[in-house]
Amino acid sequence: MAVGVFDSGLGGLTVYEALARKMPDVAFVYLGDNAHAPYGVRDAEDIYRLTCAGVERLWAEGCDLVILACNTASAAALKRMQEHWVPKDKRVLGVFVPLIEALTEREWGDNSPPREVEVKHVALFATPATVASRAFQRELAFRAIGVDVEAQPCGGVVDAIEQGDEILAEALVKSHVEALKRRMPHPEAAVLGCTHYPLMEAAFQEALGAGVKVYSQPNIVAESLADYLARRPEMLGKGTVSRFLTTGNPASVSAKATQFLRHGIRFEAA
């Protein structure tokens, strides 16, 4: 039974891989909106429109539950979608909340008042649109008090990763970490708030130093979704075979995805 996974491009494949490892019996339909990537430099209205279109395409594939494996879409569009657009028989979930629950050591669905947590100084690395939305800080405030968040918009990193330029991506990561540490010299934890960034996790960790705990999304999101589906099995949609769709050129996207994941993957036209 299929679950939809939506991303602006290739970054969500890091989440898909973790989901597939955690739930090998669940089929997924992945949709990358490569024709319009990256989302991180677009305005909120544009992101909302494109995300709704992508989710509708996955509903058409029989995916009643769709995961926005894109922090920019989760930050800029998800709340509005859930409040005003998603019908009662469908679900659209984001990738921010599981990350914040892990950071604040809360169980899934713990709706108790915000409380003091051990981590006080958090570095957030994300796309410019995600940083501008302040969605991470808003969700964190529901669960924790007294946490100082310093956000660093990481321009250029997604483009470098999608183009396969690892040297440039590593240089940009180092530069962005240095810029953040000028404002927050001693972060205790760092959140990689973009699903592309797990591919650069080692570079972030090296630049931040061994004493900083780095929170990366794929495995955290996979654990959260497995728990959600155990409680809501009716949200498994139709379909038994995983597929990969793109709004871009399938041959080109397949080649980039294969380089991205270091194993073969074949995309079809959406």
From TrEMBL:
PROSITE patterns: ASP_GLU_RACEMASE_1
Active site: C70, C194
Keyword field contains Cell cycle: no
Primary enzyme class: isomerase
Enzymatic reactions: L-glutamate = D-glutamate
Recorded metabolic or biological pathway in which this protein acts: Cell wall biogenesis; peptidoglycan biosynthesis
Endpoints of the signal sequence: none
Keywords, in A-Z order: Cell shape, Cell wall biogenesis/degradation, Isomerase, Peptidoglycan synthesis
One GO molecular-function entry: glutamate racemase activity
Isomerase is among the record's keywords: yes
Gene3D superfamilies: 3.40.50.1860
Record-listed substrate binding positions: D7, S8, Y39, G40, N71, T72, T195, H196
Assigned EC number: 5.1.1.3
Similarity-based family: Belongs to the aspartate/glutamate racemases family.
Protein name from the UniProt record: Glutamate racemase
